Model the fold of this input.
Amino acid sequence: MTEPTQKRGKLFYKFLIVFLIVSLVPLGIVGYYLVNLSQVTLNRAISRDQEALAVGFADTVSSYIINFRNVLFDAAHLEDFASMNAGKQQDLVNRIMQLHAAFLEISVFDASGQETVRIGRFLHETKMRDFSNDALFAKVMRTGEFVGGLEKYMGSYPAITMGVQVVNPVTNQPVGALLAKMSLTALSSLLKTGFPEATQTQAAVIDSNGFLIAHSNSKEIYKPNAKLPDDVLRVLLQNDARTGGGELILESTGEKVLGAFAEVTDLGWVVYIQRSVSVAYQASEDMLRRTWRMMLIVTVFVLFLGYAVSLVITQPIRALREAAIKLGEGDFDYLPDLSMPNDEIGELAHTFVQMSESLRVKTAEIMSAKTELERLNRSLEHRVEARTRELKSAQDELIKKERLAAIGQMASVVGHEIRNPLAVINNSIYFIKTKLNAAAAASPTAVPMEPKVIKHISIIESEIRQANGIIDEILGFARTRELNPKIVHLNSYLEDLTMSYPVPPHIELIQTFAPENPVVNMDVDEMTQALRNLIKNGIEVMPERGKVFVRSEMAGDMVRIDVEDTGAGMPKETLEKIFAPFFTTKARGTGLGLAVVKKVTDRHKGRIEATSVVGQGTCFKIFLPIIKNPPPPSPSHT
Done:
């Protein structure tokens, strides 16, 4: 009979997944990074190349214009021009027009601005003109030369005006001017040659106002008011850089293009080259597709390799697992046969067989010892727990008794040795004030009491009140009386408490009470003292201005009373010690205020917690048990 087919175990799939992750994830990450880096680098190189093309053609345009300007310059320095002989000048102009087809019209003017020669390719009027008041003529005579004045010659041909001085080569003095209109249609031919339609690239030259001077599609320049699209012009005319480039989305078509521009030196023109992004980045996209295709082939190969490796490794481990299950069930006699290849897995199988033999012997001993050990452990645990409780209880009681004894002794001394002298001082101050006031009232001419005396009497009275307050805190912490609990509706109680508390004008007291209006059983006097201590502490830490929040909120079978301030807050080290007796951060104080609050809370079978954030404030939270089935409120609280 053939053995039933066994399912692959979890280890097989885990090992396969780990193998794939270890193999493919680094490869994928590195491949993705390198592919994207290569694509970005190639795209940047393409953009830089297109920008270099724009710079190169800008230099070509500049050289083109300068060459024709030099033609006029060289002619203007010839002796035949300087002689101002109209016949000789006309011969020279005709020769220039024959040699250079780009010149549409050339005129010669004497020093006074009178035109002596005028020759044009499409000229029908031969009347000489007076340029004595012309700004262009004046500029040429002043600066020596002029290049500019873009226009549509005869309404169609883009043309530029050039002007140079006619200089006497002997005296080197200007004797007139040579003005010419030059056609720029040859620039469009240059653009068309450099950027044919097959490359799906457009190139153009524009002036500082955005009008087309030349275009790789010569039909564009003959259109009325020929310009590039507005969104392209905004980028070109508002950019201060001399060269640049990047991606641009055309608003008219929504097409994404790669553009580059360069300024033509001394003319203020801009050469702009544009190519569709899909065409410009075609090389990088092809590289990306080929790379991902290769990554897919590698992934499939690694998948099959991982499957084969996982299968070879997990088969002997699966046999070991079945033997371990038998061993775990206590079946030492019917373990399956294990193959033991000459590798680490074979050593593991051999060790497993030895372990099963040893485990057979030790199991019986362990089972008998286990029962005895459990019995001893239970006995020891009970004894340790009992002793620990006794020691902790004795230690807490001893500490409490020692502390209360010390506080009681101190409170007794304070009560008998300090309060009586304070009372005598207070009575004496009252007597002195009475006598001084009586003397001032008996004699109209008596000198009024000095302000310093009044100030120092007030200081003495304030210090007496401060000392009595400290004595009250110490005696309040030391004395322990029986609680006098009463059933109280908490919201009404808190409202009465906050209304009766003297809140300074610079403090804003904000109340928020639980809508359930919980009922608690508490000693009103003690709890009032505790809450007043918390409100007082909150006010004292805000000497200038701030807010004190008094809230109540249900918390399960308890109610939580919050007293929160917006003061400076406390660090964690201080927060851990604030409920310890005699610990205080104030310049004057006993450190018993919060200790009294904790004592009152503990006596009511509640608890108190404190949270604080430096720079934001502190919040004290008192948790008190609620009465689940309270009697109805009295008429005075409805």
Observations:
- The first strand starts at residue 103 and ends at 110.
- The domain at 77-183 is CATH 3.30.450.20 (Beta-Lactamase).
- The mean pLDDT is 79.
- The two ends are 90 Å apart (CA to CA).
